[in-house]
Amino acid sequence: MPRRRTDLRILSNSQKLRHNSTDAEMKLWRVLRGHQLKDIHFRRQHAIGTYVVDFCAPSMKLIIEVDGGQHLDQETYDQERTAYLESKGYRVLRFWNNDVMHDLDGVVTVILDTLESQGNLP
Questions:
Q1: Which of 56, 57, 84, 102 is disulfide-compatible with 46, CB 3.0–4.6 A?
Q2: What pLDDT is stored for residue 12 in this prediction?
Q3: Using CA atoms, how far apart are residues 33 and 44, in angstroms rounded to an integer?
Q4: What is the torsional sign of CA 35, 39, 42, 48?
Q5: Class of the CATH domain delimited by 8-117
Q6: How far is it, in rounded angstroms, from Cα 75 to Cα 56?
Q7: What pLDDT does 20 receive?
Q8: Buried (b) or exposed (e) across 29-42, using 16+ Cβ within 10 A?
Q9: Rounded CA gap, 22 and 48, in Å?
Q10: How far apart are CA 56 and CA 44, in angstroms?
Q11: What is the DSSP string of 26-59?
């Protein structure tokens, strides 16, 4: 039997999250999918350890999270989660749903500026 890097429960959860994406996640995914953004490969609802992140560009070590109002009540959890992901070498960008829905160009600019500052873009 092949060995999996991620627990089957986590994989199952990531699949459920993909099928229940928020409007903001779907709007950003339309920009990120299919190598449309500077030919970068993004994954949606990607499992890393025990966490599932909204979007991940593994080759760029970049994670993008789109947060709704529930994140106001889970600041400690989000900080621990971010610390874990950063310990694995990832850079984590967080955007509010409202930012994605009303300023998608600004969100994309921040993503591209981050990649450029990391030396990942020409």
A1: 56
A2: 54
A3: 8
A4: positive
A5: alpha beta
A6: 21
A7: 65
A8: bebbeeeebeebeb
A9: 20
A10: 7
A11: HHHHHHHGGGTTTT---EEEEEETTEEEEEEEGG
Q: What is the pTM of this model?
A: 0.81
Structure tokens at 57: 């560009």
Which amino acid makes up residue 69?
G
**Residue 85 clears pLDDT 90, i.e. is over it:** yes
93-114 b/e (C-beta count within 10 Å ≥ 16 → b): bebbbebbeeebeebeeebeeb
Distance CA 21, CA 44 (A): 10
The residue extents of the domains of the chain are 8-117
- The pairing of strands 62-67 and 43-48 is unpaired
Cβ-contact 63, 91 below 8 angstroms: yes
